[in-house]
Amino acid sequence: MTVPENSRPLERHRAPLQDPPIEYRPELRWWLAEGLHTDRTLRFEIDAAHRLGFGGMEFLAMDEQAIDHARYGWGSEEWVHDSQIVVEETTARGMSVSFTSGTNWSNANLPTIDPDHPAAARELNVVTEDVRAGTGRTGTLPRIVLDEERAESLLPGHRVAPRTQEFVAAVAAPVVSEGEDGAAPVLDADAVLDLTSRVVDCALDWSPDAADDRAWRLFVFWSHGTGQTASPSASVNYTVNYLDRAGVDAVIDYWRSTVLTPELRALIARNPRAQMYMDSLELTTWGDGGLFWGASVAREFRERRGYDIAPWLPFLTRSVLLMASATTYRYQPTEAQRPTVEKVRHDYVETLTDLYIENMLRPFAAFLHENGILLRSEISYGLPFELTRPGPEVDGIETESLEFGSQIDAYRLLAGPAHLFGKQYSSETGATTRNNMLDHRFYDQIIATQLAAGITKTVLHGWASTAGAEGATEWPGHEGMWPAFSERFDLRQPASEFYPQWNAAIGRIQYLLRQGRPRIDVGILRTDHFVDNMSGMFFLDADGHRIPDEVAYGTMWMRNRENHWWQDLGMQDAGWSYEFFDGSLLLRDDVSFAQGLVQPDGPGYQALIVYQEALNPDVARLLLDRARAGLRVLIVNGARELKLLLTGEHILNARAASRTPGLDGRDAELAETMAALRAQPTVAEIDDPAQTVSALRGLGVAGRAEFVAENRSVLGSLREDGDLLHVYLYHFLYETGEDTVVEVALPSAGTPYRVDPWSGALAEHRGVRLDGDRTVVSVALAPGEIALLTVDRSQAPTGSRPAESETVQRLDGWSISVESWDAGPDELIVEDRGLGYETREVRPTTAVTTIPVDGSGLRPWTELPGVGPEVSGVAEYRAEFELDSAAEPGERLLLDLGSTAGGLGVASVNGGEARGFDTSRPVVDITDAARAGRNTVTVRVASSLNNRLIARGYYDNIPDMGLLLLGREGGHQTQVRPHGLLGPVTVVRER
């Protein structure tokens, strides 16, 4: 039976694809100059962001120079007033609005507490004494010198010393060796003595046995506030405790009593997309203990793990370089004792994760929901919390491009909990250490990579008003997040002229890839409390030389066949999708198994992979029960994964599931369960990860959008939307690859349509064949290019050959003009709200000088006469071409721009609609606009600000953040870049 065209399932998507609703468009992180911005500036910026096509704004306070922080900082009357305007103006335009849980972005923080407050972040610190038999020790225990000067952390916030400390434990251990060449001292874990009960009034008299000639070390543990502050604030904001309930209760009390005024509550009630955003967890400790702590930690550890933590505390003390991934334990056990100590270390961080979930995320989300606010969070990384377990507690799971270097495997790390529990998966996108330097194509590639992992919400990092404090703001404008860090997708960019088309294109893709449900072929069980979220910020070669971010992103890691966590690339090359999650998530009541699939109404994993040496015995028992019901499980031995890229450390999982992760005494039980699991007919085991695909095929697994032949250049993702399948393909080797053709086999028969992200047009895809009950589509991709297809399975398929192309014209004889951007006069903005003072802002303006170019072909601006290496801005190109005939039915006419040097832009024919294009393959469909006879073409292409800023000396005194994060010094280095339409430009007839 033929389905009427107007009732086909694809029809409901035509209108949103033409004009994607605002909730599908990219959003922004907005760095406000504290509360300094005038009402006029705030309204101007929000109106501009909306006009440019952005869908929402996440706002936060950043330090601004030369202003009174008490008047304008977070928590001040000015900040509260500005916050209300931001919510009011975004809500009026249908935009989302996101708060942060304190000033800046790094953690939840408050002005109502001090370092000694029960709600303040705490740490467990240690001081040591060496003790020998015969002399022993007597008297008062040594305390922490709380105001001792130490190097400041690279994380945000300075330290204010607490005044009080609380005794926690006294533990003695024999020293086996002091360690050499930087190695940690070794203690005898079997001989540790817990002396805590012998401490009276903070004094201890103790000596080793007289016959014991070993050197002993006494560890005295004290708990105190970390004293970590956050700025800018009207007073001093202190980081709250993420482990004790007092921390979140203080946050809730402050928001309830101070922030959420009746006026603000009324505005939030009108905005269905009001959110709270929690960034990566950038909390720090100060002392030698290095342990995050709280009043309840020792008690909760005992109740949850069944033993006391005190005797093990010396082996938990640690130092940290920036993030938890760079944890170095200060003391080690003997090799024979190491397995036991590793279990204790796991139990500590598992307990921290429990407390973070139960005492921070869960009550905070409940409070927010009561007030009409959703919780979006970078849920775990930065602190020693399990990466994926907190996923079910939030409304949206967020990752980022910066700390992970926009690596596909990194995006897969958090895709598992997002897809398992139907959470919006988003990314903070575009931060690098290369401020204003890079062409637009670089950022397009980050977004394209994210989409391939199932990220369907882009939050650009970020936006700043060009207006800032008088005396501290110079062209191109107020920086917001410092001049050495990130990018600004705002009006200072020449490319902002084309943001409406760009945002609409991303909105169309994100719209289609949020429909229905994700379909993921394989789930990989992976537990990680110390994920390397610094792996995307390591830019040194073997000789210690700085590698530019854009070189690393474009040529290293995933683009050099080196994925970090699942390192065998067989599934990726086969077009199979896979992602990671902690196995304990399978134990939840809201995870189901039916028809051989895990979470069939969600990702529908066909099989699960077990590869890490440690496995929760309850998870193993569940796998056994499910395998008996038909679940396919692959056990992989010998899998290697990244531990810390900075030091080149990896973990080799020699034998999968060979021990439990914690000190639970259940290793024998696990071994028995795994033996039974291995005996199931739906379970296979391999000793080489390279055999993964063949082993899974042997179990009956087939990729739902698998490649007919191996392809090492393409990533894909799949959504199932009733009778529709939405397929996303991306040629990720944008710097090193060549053109490729990939054949994708899709389940069941249907008619494929190609979706043009730049216009929303749908056209039947050419290059289709049937293979049994599968539809096979052939897609040609250039390096960096994406393709978006929808297969309508309610339509009977028709086979077709790939389209054939013929170049009918090459365009020469261009008329070129370059609009050169440079500093213009400053605009002074003065506001008097009747509070007894004036607020003064400066908005640098941009002077645009048009440079006509005569007698030149398509060349980089650096080579155009009268333009040269100092120019940034926008160029306009005009040319004419002749056509013998317009497009016939079934034909398309395409304008192929060749290359725009990575620049964003638009093209129009005969004065028609200006359409954007893929910066990797800039081709515009001109079928409707081109006509027989003479046609005129206008192309406009933007550059970055790089060349102009070099000429102005902007980078001369800016430190290189990529080096600074590694503890080294050096300036921001860049080079003059080619910009402009490079061509060759041709008109192509496609049949």
What is the gist of this entry?
With 991 residues, the protein is of the alpha+beta class. It is 20% helix and 27% strand.
Question: Keywords for this structure?
Answer:
27% strand, globular, 20% helix, single chain, eight-stranded parallel β-barrel, alpha+beta, seven-stranded antiparallel beta sheet, 991 residues
Would you mind describing this structure in some detail?
20% of the residues lie in helices and 27% in strands. It starts with 13 loop residues before the first helix and ends with a strand. It is globular. With 991 residues, it is of the alpha+beta class. Helix 2 (39-51) runs parallel beside helix 4 (77-92), helix 4 (77-92) runs parallel beside helix 6 (262-269) and helix 5 runs parallel beside helix 9 (338-370).
Quaternary state reads single chain
Total beta-strand segments: 49
Helicity range: 10-25%
Shape: globular
Biggest sheet architecture: 8 strands, parallel, barrel
Q: Span between N and C termini? A: 29 Å
Mean pLDDT: 96
Spatial strand sequence of the major β-sheet: 1-2-3-12-16-17-18-19
**Spatial extent as radius of gyration:** 30 Å
Unreliable runs:
none
Number of helices, where a helix is a run of at least 4 consecutive DSSP H or I residues:
19
Structural class determined from secondary elements: alpha+beta
Strand content: 25-35%
Break the fold down into its secondary structure elements and pairings.
Layout: H1 14-18, E1 27-32, H2 39-51, E2 56-61, H3 69-72, H4 77-92, E3 96-100, E4 109-110, E5 122-131, E6 166-177, E7 186-187, E8 193-194, E9 216-225, E10 229-230, E11 237-239, H5 245-259, H6 262-269, E12 274-278, E13 291-293, H7 297-305, H8 313-316, E14 318-320, E15 327-329, H9 338-370, E16 374-377, E17 396-400, H10 408-420, E18 424-429, H11 440-452, E19 457-463, E20 468-469, H12 499-512, E21 517-518, E22 522-525, H13 549-555, H14 570-573, E23 578-581, E24 593-594, E25 597-598, E26 607-610, H15 617-628, E27 632-636, E28 639-644, E29 649-653, H16 667-678, E30 683-686, H17 692-698, E31 706-707, E32 714-721, E33 724-731, E34 740-747, E35 751-755, E36 762-764, E37 768-771, E38 774-781, E39 786-792, E40 805-810, E41 815-831, E42 839-853, E43 873-883, E44 892-896, E45 905-909, E46 915-916, E47 923-925, E48 933-942, H18 946-951, H19 961-964, E49 986-990
Parallel strand pairs: 1-2, 1-19, 2-3, 3-12, 12-16, 16-17, 17-18, 18-19, 22-23, 22-26, 26-27, 27-30
Antiparallel strand pairs: 4-11, 5-9, 5-13, 6-7, 6-8, 6-9, 10-11, 14-15, 20-42, 21-32, 24-25, 28-29, 31-34, 32-33, 33-39, 34-38, 35-36, 35-39, 37-38, 40-49, 41-42, 41-43, 43-48, 44-47, 44-49, 45-46, 45-48
Helix pairs in contact: 2-4, 4-6, 5-9, 7-9, 15-16
